[in-house]
Amino acid sequence: MAEWSRGVRLGVDVGQVRVGVARSDPHGVLATPLVTLARDRAVAPEAVPSDMAELAALVTEHEAVEVVVGLPVNLAGRQGPAAVHVQAYVGRLVEVISPVPVTLADERMSTVVASRRLAERGVRGRRQRAVVDQAAAVEILQSWLDAQRRRMQ
């Protein structure tokens, strides 16, 4: 069995308007919400979008050893337009945060689950929209961490 590499991982939920970010503890047990970044869509192709620059700063600040980005697939496991959009984002992000590796993780239903959990806690409407991306990033990262731990057993 391979040994688990210790270190903080960042989980990322890429949306059209916002990017939710979560972080793990150094032992890879628990994911917690970190921040929601506004997407910077009005940037020249050669420039680094501000959301990616902020994400790179978070990688440095938290000494992240890996970034796990949710890949939206449909219930049948197929990739649609949203997945193509995320893959393009990841292609650029890899350049910005190199040499820190970026891993794609199935994020099927993460936003739905996050929204449901927030609603169960009484967080609705505007308050929910403000944090649902972070909560989705937590779902993505926690699922990935759990899968890695199962693999190590």
Automatic annotation (TrEMBL):
Keywords (A to Z) from UniProt: Cytoplasm, Hydrolase, Nuclease, Ribosome biogenesis
Biological processes annotated in GO: rRNA 5'-end processing
An annotated GO cellular component: cytosol
Domain of life assignment: Bacteria
Major subcellular site: cytoplasm
Residues in the signal sequence: none
Subcellular location: Cytoplasm
EC category: hydrolase
Enzyme Commission number(s) of this protein: 3.1.-.-
Gene Ontology MF terms in the entry: hydrolase activity, acting on ester bonds; nuclease activity
Domain YqgF/RNase H-like: 7-114
Stored PANTHER family: POLYNUCLEOTIDYL TRANSFERASE, RIBONUCLEASE H-LIKE SUPERFAMILY PROTEIN (PTHR33317:SF4)
Function recorded in the entry: Could be a nuclease involved in processing of the 5'-end of pre-16S rRNA.
HAMAP family per the UniProt record, alphabetical: Nuclease_YqgF
Family: Belongs to the YqgF HJR family.
Entries under NCBIfam families matching the protein: RNAse_H_YqgF
The protein, known as: Putative pre-16S rRNA nuclease
Species of provenance: Salinispora tropica (strain ATCC BAA-916 / DSM 44818 / JCM 13857 / NBRC 105044 / CNB-440)
